[in-house]
Amino acid sequence: MFNALLLEKEDDRTKASVQSIDEARLVDGDVLVRVEYSTLNYKDALAITGKVPVVRTFPMVPGIDFAGVVEESSHAEFKPGDSVVLNGWGAGETHWGGLAQKARVSGDHLIPLPEGLTARQAMAVGTAGYTAMLCAQALERHGTAPGDGDVLVTGANGGVGSFAIAILARRGYRVVASTGRSSEEPRLRELGAAEVIDRSALSAPGKPLQKERWAAAVDCVGSHTLANVCASLHYGGAVAACGLAQGMDLPASVAPFILRGVALLGVDSVYVPRERRLRAWASIASELAVQTIEQVASEIALGEAVDVAGRLLQGEVKGRVIVDVNR
What is the pTM of this model? Predict the structure, then answer.
């Protein structure tokens, strides 16, 4: 038996509770992992609260991330005792995820815990930090360089935004952070932001073509914010889009694309091929200081996840939330 946060459908509503579950109920997979830490992401919060139909089948254990130790394996690459990490691949959506003390998954979805990181630190990074690194790498593949001008990060107080600031600043970029919480400016500057602006400057409907302000951007927000970012990129600039905190819509014009040659780079973190995952995690392990990793994270127990999920959707939680599934 093991403890897990289980989501069940009851009268068209999602019911979330921590339960003791028989290991025999675990879904199919060739690797059984003893989970040490998981996380609470925006997507997890949507699943737990039922605000958006993230979960495809019920009952479901949410949690798009976990780090732990292999207990059983018939996969060629992993053996008992190996430390591993999982991000995405439908965990918490189409098959049981990481907010539990045990997880059975396909070994193809696992990577070794990066050298130099503990399981807790890997979850402090989690999908948020991993996505931020994918965004930075996407911008650099496009040709963005530190001397090109300011790089904007929207949704800067969230997990992805916080890590994007730290990663880009360390790589030599002048980072401008956009946030709705001015009280967090000291923390954002400590992470590496050279300037902090209020998100209201970007969140309302704007002109299809605006003053050129940003050489590049990492957008975690979507909707009008992303449209305004595209409209205010330098000629040939690019935005790595990875989030939808403001909305899934994109009320934009083609003007920035055909008159300034800007690029909209979609960044997915769920089904990224293994080699790109390994490169991203290797860069995280070598570039991010432990102090930075710990700075953007807070820790909760498994039983607190339901309450914190509601507060996360209300914008009351800053940075990363690590879940110790064993307390």
Answer: 0.90
